[in-house]
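Q: My labmate handed me this sequence with no annotations at all. I'd like to see what the chain might look like in three dimensions before we decide whether it's worth expressing. Could you predict it?
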Amino acid sequence: MKYFQLILVCVTFTIATSCNTKPNTQITNTNDYNVYLNSVKNESLEQVKLDFNFWEQKLKNTPDQYPYNAKFACANTAIFKLTGEIASLKNAEKNLIFANEKTKYNNAGYLRSLSRNYISQHRFKEALALLQKAEINGENLEQTQLMLIDVYLELGNLEATEHYLSKVKNFKSFDYLIRISKFNDHMGNLDKAIQYLEASLAIAKSSNNKALIQWNYTNLADYYGHAGRIEDSYNAYLKALALNPNDSYAKKGIAWIVYSYERNPEEALRILDAVTKENIAPDYHLLKAEILGFIGNNNQKERQIAKYLTKVSDSNYGVMYHKYDVLLHADNNSKKALTIAVQEVSERPTAQSYDLLAWSYFKNGQKEKALEIVERYVINKTFEPEALLHTAYILKANGSVEEAMKLKKELIESIYELGPLAEKDIKNI
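A: Here is what I predict for the chain of 429 residues:
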């Protein structure tokens, strides 16, 4: 349920630099987070590697023990989460497939584990098929139902999402609260989403589960940012880092605050340089590219984009970065963007995917087709600022200026989320 909060707005309109925009009041302090940037010892990763080595050796000694494959997969998954190494996630998949084959796909726990792996790879339809098998199996049924909520929401099936939410409804359950929170965020009920996530944090604290508390803080930080509560967002990221000094996601969140809210791109890049030493996920390069573009360093911007493209050319990434690929290619290779967007809608027919499809048609010069898509699949079906920005441009291009202006007020309130590069375009709608 971790969300990408990098929103890369790849639009080629003539944009005067926004560097002269007066920054907001500074709320960050380098003294608060420098210690985490200079952190050398990654205790979490060291522990996970010990587990990795242990189960790897056990498999070498007794290769026919498929439960060891599941344990080994767990260690690989943990490495992926900490480092962004896609090979580790794929190795986990291979071991989980082996365990499922040995049990003839009749072990609900193994089915859920492989489903989680596919969710991480954005292979949601395959994840759903496995969960449906696990549901029929019936073992630990509630755990399967909770995961069905995750997958149906990712696939845009709100009716099924609500159906399973009603089955597991329990406001004293951490697992239920984080899902009803995400559902409310999806529906545009941000205050409720925050309320539920704050309640889940209280439960995580009472259980003294460090990993859950850390996860909760980073997600609350995201929501606080959406709500314009930037200082609360910053403090929540810091609390996550206090629990795990190597939390790359929290550091990226602070970098975004420094860049988008405080308009200090150089400091944001310094933070990200530290992050990319411990996590090799491709999207960090796009965030660096955006910031470099903001300060007018186009040579370095192109270098970061090239690094991103090199990484995602690895077939192991599959469809994981299709959203970013569409946005990146929409301006300079709109046909390629359209091809990817069509595939994304087929794999994941959500309002956000249709937004990418509409944007691709728009950048291909097919503004009427783009309008048809947003009117049918996007407007009033998603509240993501990025989709609203695309919709405003499409409406305006099709002569619906008044409708585009209605979105302008909301977009102005979303400048922090969209980033400085979008500010002038929003104000000129």
